[in-house]
Amino acid sequence: MPTPPPDPVAHLAQQLGEATLRDVVAAFYRRIPSDDLLGPMYPSHDLAGAERRLADFLVQRCGGSPRYSQTRGHPRLRMRHQPFRIDAHARDRWMALMTAALHEVELPDDARSALRAFLGDVATFLMNVPPGAP
Ligand code: HEM
């Protein structure tokens, strides 16, 4: 049997502590309201709720508390992002804010790069506008 590829974020909730992952998401959401492209996409009346959903998702994905599934069910991220126009520009902006957040929080370099790679892969997977579409 071939060994499955290692999952570099699988144990980060234990290694870093769930609070550290939540700090990253909080640093990301602090940047959202003033962002001209992403700010209008997010619910201004429920940014705290949006922050909790992403934080719960990340904590669960990194091996921590299963609260995301308990409160939201299956992530179905492609479906849940369908209402938003995510082209390469939106993906790159999301990653720029997230990269800044990852640098605001004190993290070991390998954890920072593992998180950045994971989040970047998901962000690309969530793009829902064909290249060149108006
Ligand atoms: C590519 C650029 C992205 C854009 C423009 C975007 C935008 C949004 C918006 C506007 C929401 C609604 C906020 C809310 O009320 O919860 C949302 C929700 C969410 N996003 Fe993203 N997102 C992006 C990438 C990502 C990535 C990379 C992840 C995960 C690694 C992610 C995970 C989530 C989750 C877990 C929710 C809440 C889903 C739910 O339970 O309803 N998003 N996103």
Set out the fold topology:
Elements: H1 12-16, H2 18-31, H3 47-61, H4 67-72, H5 77-81, H6 88-104, H7 109-125
Bound molecules: protoporphyrin IX containing FE.
Description:
There is one protein chain. The chain has 134 residues and is an all-alpha fold. The protein has one domain: Globin-like. The protein has helices at 12-16, 18-31, 47-61, 67-72, 77-81, 88-104, 109-125. The radius of gyration is 15 Å and the shape is globular. Bound molecules: protoporphyrin IX containing FE. Protoporphyrin IX containing FE (HEM) is lined by residues 38, 41-43, 50, 53-54, 57, 72, 75, 77, 80-81, 84, 86, 90-91, 94, 119, 122-123, 126. Protoporphyrin IX containing FE binds next to α3, α5, α6 and α7.
Q: CATH H-level name... which superfamily?
A: Globins
Element string (H = helix, E = strand): HHHHHHH
- Tally of structural domains: 1
CATH topology: Globin-like
Offer a concise description of the structure.
The protein is an all-alpha fold and 134 residues long. It has 7 helices and no strands.
Task: List the keywords.
single chain, 134 residues, mainly alpha, Globin-like, 59% helix, 0% strand, globular, binds protoporphyrin IX containing FE
